[in-house]
Amino acid sequence: MEKTHEAERLPILDLTRAYREIREEVLEAVTRVFDSQGFILGPEVRSFEEHVESYLEMKQGRVVGCASGTDALLLALMALEVGPGDEVITTPYSFFATAGVVARLGARAVFADIDPMTFNVSLKEVEKKITSRTRVFLPVHLFGQTVPLEGVRELCAERGIAIVEDAAQALGAWRHVDGAIVRAGLMGDVGCYSFFPTKNLGGCGDGGMIVTRSDELAARLLRLRVHGESSLYRHEEVGLNSRLDALQAAVLDVKLRHLERWNAERRVLADRYRMFFEMERLVGPVTLPVEAEGNHHIYHQYVVRVERRDELMAHLEEKGLSTRVYYPIPLHLQPCFSFWGHREGDFPESERLSREALALPIFPGLKPEEQERLVKGMAAAMRR
Ligand SMILES: *Cc1c(COP(=O)(O)O)cnc(C)c1O
To answer: Which of 7, 167, 249, 256 could form a Cys-Cys staple with 48, CB 3.0–4.6 A?
Structure first.
């Protein structure tokens, strides 16, 4: 077989393309922070938080920047006083941190299997998992599509169960509920986001934020991110050192101005993938992602399902076409969670998806000819 030249490799992600358009703006912001030598919290961080508050059209509560998406989840659970003996219902199909933070606090992650169409946690399964120990429901808006939380809000409220949304992949995603727009991260009690460089809004290092409509929770979160300090050197509780760097805030503030456009581009890319798959008559052998009714999917990832996924992936790799698997091991089967006592077969939909999921390149600046090349490469590989 003919080997493709390394220079022609289609990457899974190329951040330099979007950066090129905003390079001047970013460098100006970075220079401003360096000139000020103010690196911790301060006006850069507050100004970014305020801009997110208006981007999310928040009328109450606030945005609290922190050091990572993982810390956002950890701080949210800490503010809700989750600890040993408590149960947190979540999905087995997510990035590690979703369950990692629960274990870190000595609580138990109670998994509920996914809906095979949307890859998100199934609310029917969630209802079955509620016990008297359930303190939090932690849904993940996976790959940029929201969980229809309006379906369980009332039930959770009745039972005193808080909803903490893992919106790390969904900043800018929303859904229609009774004619109104409800945004990812603002459907429950607390929303957690990540600014890891590969996310839809990515910084130049680690970063995260928490969003809440409750002033009480916001005050607690503001305290928890600075060692639980209430006034200078007085500590009400043991918190974390988890602030959003001023440098990150300055860069993110620039990128926030372009987020809607980039998210719109991702939707165009998703439509175009569908067109190419239809042209190649591959819809069927390849299951395309669905945008569930009422959803504004922002395609953080474009994940298809295929049989014999690993073989296909290896073949594409040989042709210089990069794909990825999110996620090859469902959380209940992670070695470090074996003490929760799960085994293969416990969550069949998640396990099947972990064998069939294939993420294709999707990022601002991805070219139509690159998408076409990838889909044609898949067609050739699958027709062998
Ligand atoms: C990225 C991600 C996180 C963690 O964010 P970090 O900023 O990397 O700590 C948590 N949950 C999900 C679903 C993610 O995709």
So the answer is: 249
